[in-house]
User: Fold this.
Amino acid sequence: MSSCLFCKIIAGEIPSKKLFESDDILAFYDIKPMAPVHFLVVPKKHIANLLELEAEDSALVGKLFFKAQELAKELGCGEKGGRFIINAKKDGGQTVDHLHIHFLGGRALRPKLTSWFLG
Assistant:
């Protein structure tokens, strides 16, 4: 997709601080980190969001999660953990319409519980 920010990063049109790259995955640091360790893992195939996956994308999604946990461990978050986040569509807080996993770690993260969640 020519207007997709992450597609432009994947194509090398926009620079990024890469952590990992393969034929089908790119991982890079977030430009506005919310934790000491904050990176994204994206498929090179344009998939708008998690709600638009096709059956043939299931293996790719597995690769995304495996690489995200592998990188989290490599960056020192294996013992204490962190937060893996996927936002889907506008109401889910997605700001870039390209499937991506955020990982945040490197410090204790507070739970984000709200009154609607607590019921």
Q: What stands out?
A: The CA atoms of residues 24 and 45 lie 7 Å apart. The beta strands are 18-21, 25-29, 37-43, 82-85, 101-105. The radius of gyration is 15 Å. Residues 115-119 have pLDDT under 50 and may be disordered.
